Amino acid sequence: MPSFTYPQTGATAVLRHQAGSVRQAVPPLPAGYRHLRSRSRLRPGSFPAAAEAVLTWRMHRAAGARVTASAPRAEAGVLVTVGLGVGPLRITAPCAVVWAVDEPDLAGFAYGTLPGHPASGEEAFLVHRDGDRVWLSVVAFSRPVAPIMRLAGPLGALAQRAYAHRLGTALRRLTR
Fold first, then answer.
1. Tens-digit pLDDT profile for residues 105-137
2. Closest by CA position to 69, among listed 80, 82, 77
3. Whole-structure pTM value
4. d(C-alpha 131, C-alpha 36), whole Å
5. Regarding beta strands 133-144 and 91-102, do their DSSP bridges make them parallel or antiparallel, or are they unpaired?
C-alpha cells in the first residue's frame, strides 16, 4: 500500500458509488483543504471513447501532462507521476491510484498524493453518461505542501481549476 500524504484516503470514492451525486449534489469533501468541482460537457455518444481516454492516461497526456505510470490503465495501486511545465519549471507530482471504476455509465479513477508531491490530497476524474448527455467531472481536495505552492497562494487554486478546464477541452478533442 502506498504511503499517502493525507489521512482521508478514498474520500472521493463516494462518487463512484453514487453516480447521481456526480450529476447533482456532490457529497462534502474533507474540511481543511481547497475544494475543486469542475464539470465539462462532452459530445453525445462519446462515453466509450472518453472513458478509455481517462482510464489510459490519454486525457492527461492530451492536456499537456507528462505521465509515467506503473500500468497502462488506471486501477487501484498503480503508481503515477504527473509532470507539468517545461524544463526547470516542470513540477513533478507522484501519486497512486486510490480507486478506479469502469461501468457502462461511469468510468474513471482518483489518485492521491505521495511524498514529493507539491500538494497533499486527492483528485478524481470521472466520465459519466446520463441518457444522451456525457460529462467529465473533476473533483479534488488539496492543500499546498511545497514552499513554492504555499507562496503561490490563490494562484495555485487558479492553476488547478485551469488544468481541470484543460482536461475537459482535451477530452472533447480526443472524442470528436
1. 999 999 999 999 999 999 999 999 988 899 999
2. 80
3. 0.90
4. 25
5. unpaired
